[in-house]
Amino acid sequence: MNRFSRTSLLLACLLLNVAVGHSQTNRRLAMDYLNRGTKELELGNLDTALANFNRAIELDHNYAAPYFSRGLVRKRQADYDGAISDFTRSIELSPMAEAYLDRGATRKDNGDRDGAITDYNKAIEMNPNYADAFFNRGIARDDKGDYQGAINDFTRAIELGPANARAFVGRGFARMHQGDPDGALIDYSKAIELNPRSFLAFLNRAFARKQKGDLEGAITDLSKALEINPEDVDAWFERGILRGAKSDLDGALADYARTIELNPKNAKAYANRGLILLLRRQDAAAQKEFDTALKIDSSLKTNLESSIDQIIKARQASPAPRQP
To answer: Cβ distance 39 to 31 under 8 Å?
Structure first.
């Protein structure tokens, strides 16, 4: 080898070492920004976390971790396309089950249930004992109407994590969809045993009890659900319906009032409150409620008129008592 060749080879090696050193330095710096971003993400500081993950990616375009972490931030910010892009890049650089799981969850949030199931399938293929992947696939399958497939996935998630209250809630939900309120009651009750603060377990058990005709039990569950989450409009509205069905009209009115306070656009709450007032012969007040309900949602007109006619006929059959 002549002198020029030896010099060229030495120079090439030196340049390579410089490049490797530069790459290692960048990776270390990128890890620092990744760690900072992770701490900010844990604190809920999404914009600051995003800035740190962006810097980590600028420093090292081939580092999978900051893409994955930035995907988590973007998902929480409802930037679903951005999150999917980041999870995809993370998978390209370093395939892992967690990235498939989170990309699947993001696809589901973005309305792509089939894409979500495909990702969950891949996560399970990579990790056959991945309880979260079975749980998430169960939710997606339930959404698609594959209730038996959902039940199978929730069952597997329970086998892998017997203390997973959410999986019992999910299986109970799928069983309700499949027309099995008894099985659903068992699952919701088990979820409550595992997590006595599970709002969804109490809420859904209330619906199962209602379907079984246990209105008092349903009201009790809704009351417990509202202790846990007093801002849930649906629970207030549903308890109002059940209290009305149990002839607790004062209680029903109070629940509809709270429903309207939380959601002034809930037309059915105004309509139901009007029906109670009509039943009590407070016709002018009832009409104001009906007018408000129909102004919000005119599609209620036919059903509302039918209910009004029934109440008026019932009133005619049972005249108001005369004042002494």
So the answer is: no
